[in-house]
Amino acid sequence: MAVNRDKPDRWKKDIALSVDLYNDWFLKFAPGAFRDTRLRTTREVEASLKATDNLTNIRPEVLRENPGILASLRMSTCPPIAKDRLIGLARVPKSMVARMEEGKLPLKLKSEQLDAEIVKITKIIQEMADPDIFTWLERKQPPTLEEIHRAATIVADRLCGATANPIIRNAQEERQLRIIGEWLKARGYKPIPSGSGIKFDTMPRGTYGFHINVPARFKQKSGGTDNIPIDVAIMRKGATLRTLPLLIEAKSAGDFTNVNKRRKEEAMKIALLRRTYGAKKVEYLLFLCGYFDSGYLGYEAAEGIDWVWEHRIDDLAEFGV
Fold it and tell me: 11 near 292, Cβ under 8 Å?
């Protein structure tokens, strides 16, 4: 049974409505999220400047004690240095940089070797430090508090995009799941209690659950299984014995580019589920809000994946919910 994937004549209108809905939400939520992240990040950058004598003395022991400031230092150069670019320029181990940006020191490097690798990084940072941001580096007088704060704010602006995006994605997912839950409760469905131990294929009729793990066979011959995380599982009220729940993936996007890069993910999931449980038993939908263009929709439709738009959530009823 198809509800939206076989109706390309209304895709264009739905895409426009979905973009409008996402943008309205973003304008209301994102400024606060970015502002909070920016303030927190500015304080972190100011702490990294204090630890490095305002970028005039980046000693190996400072990075040993505060490995997490490496991200701030990367954003303090002209141009800002991406993580992989720093690894190439300084010729240091990739795993070392990854660990440091997590606030940890590498496990396998001995003390002297670690210091030698850190020195390589500090040389690159000092050589490329942005003189337009850190104006005091080209003079003898120390920076004023106002100059330090201004520089920290600029570096924070460079960092906060990366740190705020996950916040926005998580908030959008929480909102989508809340909307689905409210819609289901209004129709008499009950949530599965957290920690109940109920598996996805033993859900009582008229129930739903969030963040459900569904075992799937990854290798057809070996029979090895692993869990596929599913955002929403709904066991219909009229489900018969051995019927699997309806599986829903909540997806939102703030631009058209990323969704087309990731559109194969859903196809891979449904292929694994069909292989494990049978193509006729698996029902897998997308719950969409945001920038999903005709190219994305056509790809998913060709894979046999249908969807429900958030701006028309009542379409869930057409799937027998």
Answer: no
Q: How far apart are CA 299 and CA 215, in angstroms?
A: 25
Q: What are phi and psi of 213, to 5 degrees?
A: -90, 125
Tokens coding 5 = 């994937």
Is 272 in contact with 219 (CB distance < 8 Å)?
no
Question: Do the strands 306-309 and 284-290 form a parallel or antiparallel pair, or are they unpaired?
Answer: parallel
Separation CA 11–CA 250 (nearest Å): 18
Backbone angles phi, psi at 57, to 5 degrees: -150, 80
Q: Are residues 233 and 210 in the same domain?
A: yes
Percent of the chain with pLDDT over 70: 97
Give the pLDDT band (50/70/90) at residue 96: very high
Taking the CA atoms of 43, 48, 51 and 55 in sequence, report the sign of the dihedral they define.
negative
Contacts within 8 Å (CB) and 24+ apart, 161-164: 163/37, 163/41, 164/30, 164/33, 164/34, 164/37, 164/38
Q: Which of 246, 291, 247 is closest to 266 using CA atoms?
A: 247
**Over the stretch 269-280, which tens digit does the pLDDT of each residue have?**
898 898 888 888
Question: What residues contact residue 231 under an 8 Å CB cut-off, 6+ apart?
Answer: 173, 176, 177, 210, 211, 212, 248, 249, 250, 287
Same domain flag for 294 and 252: yes
Q: What local confidence, expressed as pLDDT, does residue 168 receive?
A: 82
Whether residues 192 and 264 fall in one domain: yes
Torsional sign, CA 256, 259, 263, 269: negative
- The CATH number covering residue 197 comes to 3.40.1350.10
Query: Does residue 142 sit in the same domain as residue 203?
Result: no
Question: What pLDDT does residue 32 have?
Answer: 80
